[in-house]
Structures are given as structure tokens and as C-alpha cells.
Specification:
- The protein is built from five helices and ten strands, in the order ββαβααββαβαββββ.
- Helices cover 26% and strands 25% of the residues.
- The protein is globular and about 45 Å long.
- α1 runs parallel beside α3.
């Protein structure tokens, strides 16, 4: 069965973006971008909320036609266009580039998607990740910690009073100071009561 893999960049103090959605502090150089390309190419699909999807769709479909794009950026443009994408939104009416619109996070539907053939499914976006976490649907965590403190912003993980046990899998340090922390669910954590599915409207 395919797994749901949460893949997110985060500041050392735990934020994925600043209070005004700032992400210019992300330290993505050629080495890290090649790593992202390699990992995303292996996936069978991307799961995003509307905001994240629209930000990606504004730039990546034609990024390989931009003379200012690096080789890594041009390569990722093709990867992004081709990979199946599932955007969770209650308001989005249309989406291009091999994208399926899903209205809500319904556990049985997610499990059915996991049972389809193909690679693992990459999950992005804090709001969507929170919905998946409430339903105990995240199998693996790949957190890329950037060497910066931004002070305030949107935290990666929602507040929770239920401990979630994880099993350490891997760590990797990149030349620019970013560190990958990779963990999997260990299968023994208690399942919490799930809230209604939430989409990034």
C-alpha cells in the first residue's frame, strides 16, 4: 500500500512561513533542489490545499521556458507538470496540469487512494496536514529544518494533547545548513478522535 508522506520546510523555531506568508528565508540551493527533484520524481502524486496548489500553478508549468531558471528549476517544472496532483478545496472549480479537485479529507477515500498502484503520496501545506493528522492518515514525516529563526508565523504542526510516537529513519545534512529529519509512524500510537475533514478552501 502507498504511504502518505508529509514533506515540509520549516524554520528552526518551527514555522513554515512568516505572518504574511513569507518564505524567502528558505535556503534552497542547487544541491537541495536536486534532492527535492529526486524525491518528488519517485512519488505517485502530490496532495495540496488550494493556496499551495495555486502558488505552484502560477510559476512551475512554464518555469523551464524562463531563461533565468536554473537547470534544477527547469527539471522540476517537467516533474510538476507530469505528476498527478490532488488539490483539496471546497471552492476551487477548475484545475489544470493533471490535477484532481477533492472537496474534503474523507478517511475512506484517502485509504482507497493509498490502495491504488504507484508511488507514495506527498502531502504539503500545514492546514491540509493538520486535517490528515486529525484522521491519523500521515505515515511518514520528512521535515527539512532551515538554519534560520523567523520569530513568528504559521507553525508546521497544530496544537495537540495526544502524543504521537514516531520511529527515527534518517537524517541528512546539506551543504547549506538545511537538515532533513525523517520519521515514520511506529504503529503503536493511539488513534485520536477525528474532527470533520477540512479542506484548504
Amino acid at each position: 500500500m502507498r504511504r502518505i508522506v508529509l514533506m515540509m520546510s520549516v524554520s528552526l523555531d518551527g514555522f513554515i512561513e512568516g505572518p504574511n506568508r513569507e518564505i524567502e528565508w528558505h535556503r534552497v540551493d542547487a544541491e537541495l533542489h536536486r534532492h527535492f527533484n529526486e524525491e518528488i520524481r519517485k512519488l505517485g502524486g502530490l496532495l495540496d490545499g488550494r493556496v499551495t496548489h495555486e502558488l505552484m500553478a502560477e510559476f512551475w508549468p512554464t518555469a523551464d521556458q524562463d531563461p533565468d531558471s536554473t537547470a534544477e528549476m527547469a527539471e522540476f517544472a517537467g516533474i510538476w507538470r507530469d505528476i498527478p496532483k490532488y488539490v483539496y478545496s471546497r471552492t476551487l472549480e477548475r484545475a489544470d496540469w493533471n490535477t484532481t479537485i477533492v472537496r474534503d479529507v474523507v478517511p475512506d477515500e484517502v485509504r482507497a487512494l493509498k490502495e491504488q498502484p504507484g508511488g507514495d503520496l506527498g502531502l504539503g501545506g500545514a492546514d491540509l496536514a493538520a486535517a490528515f493528522l486529525r484522521h491519523d492518515l500521515v505515515d511518514e514525516f520528512r521535515v527539512y529544518v532551515h538554519p534560520v529563526l523567523i520569530g513568528r508565523g504559521k507553525p508546521l504542526f497544530p496544537e495537540s494533547y495526544t502524543p504521537t510516537d514516531l520511529r527515527f529513519v534518517e537524517t541528512r545534512a546539506f551543504g547549506n545548513g538545511v537538515v532533513l529529519l525523517r520519521y515514520e509512524r511506529d504503529g503503536t500510537a493511539p488513534v485520536t478522535a477525528a474532527d470533520p475533514g477540512a479542506a484548504d478552501a
